[in-house]
Amino acid sequence: MSIIPNWLHRLSSPKNFYRFAGTASNWCGWIALVLMIAGLYYGLVDSPPDYQQGDSARIMYVHVPAAWMSMFVYMVMASSAAVGMIWRIKASSAFANASAPVGAMFTALALVTGMLWGKPMWGTYWVWDARLTSELILLFLYLGYMALNSAIEDRETAARATAILALVGVVNIPIIHYSVEWWNTLHQGATVTKLDKPSIHISMLIPLLLMAFAFKFYYLSNVFRRARCELLEREQGKLWVRELVGEKNGE
Amino acid sequence: MSEAKLGTAFISLLRRDLMLAYRHRAQMMNPLLFFVIVVSLFPLGLDPEPELLHTIAPGVIWVAALLAAMLSLDNMFRSDFEDGSLEQLLLTPHPLPLLVLAKILAHWLVSGLPLLLLAPLLGMLLNLGSESLFPLLATLALGTPVLSLIGSIGVALTVGLRGGGVLLSLLILPLFIPVLIFAAAAVGNAGAGLDITGQLAFLGSLLALAFALAPLATAAALRISLN
Amino acid sequence: MWVGAGSSVFYESGETSHFMREQARVEAVGLAISRNDRYIFTDLNFSLEAGQILQVEGHNGSGKTTMLRILCGLTLPTDGEIRWCGENIRKNLAEYHAQLAYVGHAPGIKDDLTPLENLSLAGAMDRPRDGANAEQVLERLRLPAFCDDVPCRNLSAGQRRRVALGRLLMLDAQLWVLDEPFTALDPAGRRLVEELLSEHAKAGGMAVMTTHHAVNLDGCTVHRLQLGT
After folding, report:
1. Residues with Cβ < 8 Å from C76, sequence gap 6 or more?
2. Which domain holds residue A47?
3. Nearest-10 crossing angle of helices B133-158, B197-225
4. Secondary structure of residue A178 in the 3-state scheme
5. Domain segments of chain C: what residues?
6. Does the domain spanning C15-99+174-229 belong to CATH 3.40.50.300?
7. At what angle do helices B164-191 and B197-225 cross, to 10 degrees?
8. What's the gap in Å between the CA of A234 and the closest CA on chain C?
9. Which of B146, B144, B193, B153 is nearest to B171 (CA)?
10. Quick one: three-class SS letters along A78-119?
């Protein structure tokens, strides 16, 4: 197919993907570290405290990017699972499976930081806020994906089954999101419970974006590493894996 | 030489499942009894004060309906999987999504429709109020088919696996949440005298979406499970 | 060739279809399957024409059942393809299935239904033979009279297997795929299956089966395929 660039096509081979992912993982890891240090500095130290909430609002710099990532990772997971299933590309399925625990981790991070934010703001750790509730349900979807993946023994079958589940999830997430938003407006208390900042000043936007990109690169670094492990396992009989092990042993 | 007729196949499969359910009617009652028992637990665990019960009734009835649906879903494909009838379904020349629809319809007639019949009883137990009864029936009529449709995807994905029932719940219950939210809200609002056409319309569109897409996903999942 | 004529699932009647059936061929080309990331067999090839029977042999775990399931289109092979009359079955699976009858390890019958109900259902779900009648098929299967109205769970394993094989007589299928058809059958049952296979081959049908038993089929070409060597 001419619309797929040659380098992408070559990546679908597990051996090439393994090498590429190794280098990419290292690069992304370092970039993530740099961005995170910059983002945390600007967010926690350099930006002005919120006039209403004071310093406790700074947790937004972790909470908001984590929430963005939880959604983003699910989309990437579902797409790469679908690609892996339709065109039977092992590297793509491995990428999807590797994304699941990382996505779950970002969701848990969003939940925990949301709870930590909530305590000074509302006096209690958990409220059934629209965002927190959506994140909780998203966490269940991730855990369901991981549970189904581990329940099926054959890797090829597991890849296809979890792809279906992920696609069903993708269709449902907007519906769930909308339903929870609507439900939340029904039961809204006197105080506004949205965790978003109503307006974002530029000095707040920069650290936010820095953290968002830092998280993206961290995600890529982590997923590439995990995907490599899964590919090694799935291809253990193949020549390229044996050669690789031979090299390591020879060192 | 004759042709394979889709209509005949659909009706035969539907009739077969209904016949099998009838021959096991004692077992079919179990989820319904579960439905009633679960609802009865709430007044026992809380204060049976009429006002409180009236407030929690819509949510409790609907949560119990979700759980009863989970219990009954397991039967959809398990028996066919174990005796080899399921693979025979995959080997007919008919489109699998349509055959799946026949099975889902049979499942709903046996497990979903009876919930509507039990609803007035449960309304009485929880002091629901007569003005909420018809809205409750409407939401059950629109919502329980959605549960059967979405649930069938989960059952198809887990039919060959160990740990089936619990895994199924983990996969499917989050997907039921929109139905729960809108159905319970509709019944609650009806009790307060508010208009509920919006909620019912939403449930109707969920049903339409599930009806169009779920059989396709379930058919794909069945092929994967029988690989 | 009728395969190219469209995606309908019915034949034309009369002499034309008879002629077309003679041209039918099923082939496995470069078949390979891996499970749990380990190959069970690779580069499997065979070809079968009308009137021929293929007997697949191999030790336990050599992939006999898996190969039959790939042949039916139930399992996706890791490599290679199955061709019906020269065309990949994946291109038109429904049409391939209209020509196929499968009796696997699991009998494919409902224990709560009587043999009569099971066979009528089999005929209703797929393409029935002209004039196929569940009662006549039951007679042909030589089940004792009481079996007609009794749920299959009350029959012996051998009797259930006969009911399962009854599907072959109810359906109009050119290719029979049988997984250990002689299981649980007494000598009379085995003779019955051999009769059915001979008749089927003489009428221009073909069959692929796995079995450990020696098969005695007069007047038919029986090819053998050994898996796992």
Report:
1. B227, C70
2. 17-244
3. 20
4. helix
5. 15-99+174-229, 110-172
6. yes
7. 170
8. 6
9. B153
10. HHHHHHHHHCCCHHHHHHHHHHHHHHHHHHHHHHHHHHHHHH
Tell me, what's the ipTM? 0.90
User: CA separation (Å) from C44 to B118, C61, C69?
Assistant: 58, 16, 14
B67 residue type, one letter? L
B114's enclosing H/E stretch is helix B113-125
CB B204 within 8 A of CB B142: yes
What is the distance in angstroms between the Cα of C110 and the nearest Cα belonging to chain A?
Answer: 27
Q: Which pTM does this prediction carry? A: 0.88
User: What amino acid is encoded at C114 in this protein?
Assistant: T
Query: Measured between CB atoms, does B29 come within 8 Å of chain C?
Result: no
Of the candidates B125, B148, B158, B120, the residue with the CA atom closest to the CA atom of residue B136: B120
Nearest CB among B20, B91, B92 relative to C112 is that of B20
Residue A9 resides in a domain:
no
Rounded CA-CA distance B174/B199 in Å is 19
pLDDT tens across B107-147, in order? 999 999 999 999 999 988 888 888 889 999 999 999 999 99
Residue A2 within any structural domain of the chain: no
What's residue C223's pLDDT? 85
Query: B25-62 burial, b if ≥16 CB within 10 A, otherwise e?
Result: eeebeebbebbeebbeebbeeeeeeeeebbebbbbbbb
Helix (H) or strand (E) segment spanning residue C34 = strand C25-35
Residue of A nearest to B189 (CA): A186
Instruction: Find where tokens 């395969």 sit.
Output: C3
Three-state DSSP state, C97: helix
DSSP state of B227: -
